Amino acid sequence: MSSKLTPDNDLELFFSADLIPDQVKAQLHPDVHLRPLASTDYHRGHLAVLSVLTVVSDPGESNWLVQYHSMRAASKTYYPIVIVSKQTDQIVGVGCVFIERKFLRGLGSVGHIEDIAVDKSQQGKKLGLRIIQTLTGISENSGCYKTILNCSDENIPFYEKCGYQKKENEMAKYAPERAQPSPRL
Amino acid sequence: MSSKLTPDNDLELFFSADLIPDQVKAQLHPDVHLRPLASTDYHRGHLAVLSVLTVVSDPGESNWLVQYHSMRAASKTYYPIVIVSKQTDQIVGVGCVFIERKFLRGLGSVGHIEDIAVDKSQQGKKLGLRIIQTLTGISENSGCYKTILNCSDENIPFYEKCGYQKKENEMAKYAPERAQPSPRL
């Protein structure tokens, strides 16, 4: 199988690839590569993979880049990762952990895992598990005393296999339409 | 009742007090004042109020200030608020919302409400409700399409009265002891 994969060295990565745990790299399916989000990933289908989760409108590349740099400016806060197909150089999996700093627990931090998605064509390669292992590892290596995520009832068994336990309930309030300005572009 | 309250103008506030919704100010119990966290709040019992939630070790004022400024450096991310007794100038309630930026939902944002605590001496003044109203207002006025929080089963009815609905399940993984460095002071 020929590889079209763009090497990490040719990319501007969101954070250092050294933070990807070695254990995950060793277990990763050989068809794919796992790395931090890169500044050119708009062109590798980043938003298409996210669209399995919810509404994903296309803001255009320049607005995507504004968001990328705005998130990156919040130092040591966001850690977005992608899984890329070696054959196509296209993104087939995504996830993010952001690190919340607190005043309690001795000025502790908590990692929040968000927006895990894997392309349906990639089932059976344990990519969801590798994403969770990577983000949990980044969270724990950042000193977080816990890592949390929200999931539906049917996904609880998967996250239990990843070492997570049900703790509390997620409550949500959607903003009234009038209170929602256009995405700040 | 004589007031010992330090005026907002004499404080360095975490964010602009203009972001506190007028409606909340109008409904607030007259014994108390609601404002953004201030750089001198270490001396007003900030950590003592948080200690009703979980383990709160005292890191000392200088380390508390490092955390304060580190959180403030992440622009438009953290919005910590406090409720102060006018009689004592001590903190009797706290809460925080942080704004998470995403690539989905048209580069949308989500507000995460965290670490709500009210001193037991203040029950019956609806301070918990005022904190939730304030943080939800800040989140929605920041353009967040939804605001979320995690709570125990017994607190679901309270948050339903605040306009929230149960959505998903919070899953948590605590870091192994060996992976927890001392708080980065």
Secondary structure layout plus pairing:
Two copies of one chain form a homodimer.
Chain A (H helix, E strand, L loop, with lengths): L21 H6 L4 E5 L9 H5 L10 H13 L4 E8 L5 E11 L2 H4 L1 E10 L8 H15 L4 E6 L4 H6 L3 E10 L11
Parallel strand pairs in A: 4-5
Antiparallel strand pairs in A: 1-2, 2-3, 3-4
How large is the radius of gyration of chain A? 17 Å
- Using the alpha-carbon principal axes, give the shape of chain A: globular
- Strands in their spatial order, largest beta sheet of chain A: 1-2-3-4-5
Give a quick account of the main beta sheet of chain A: strands, pairing sense, barrel closure.
5 strands, mixed
Q: What letter string, H or E per element, gives the SSE order of chain A?
A: HEHHEEHEHEHE
Largest interface: A-B, 75 and 74 residues
Count of helical stretches of chain A: 6
- Arithmetic mean of pLDDT of chain A: 93
Structural class of chain A: alpha+beta
First-to-last CA distance of chain A: 40 Å
EC number (chains A, B): 2.3.1.4
Protein name (chains A, B): Glucosamine 6-phosphate N-acetyltransferase
Keywords (chains A, B): Acyltransferase, Transferase
InterPro entries (chains A, B): Acyl_CoA_acyltransferase, GNAT_dom, GNPNAT1-like
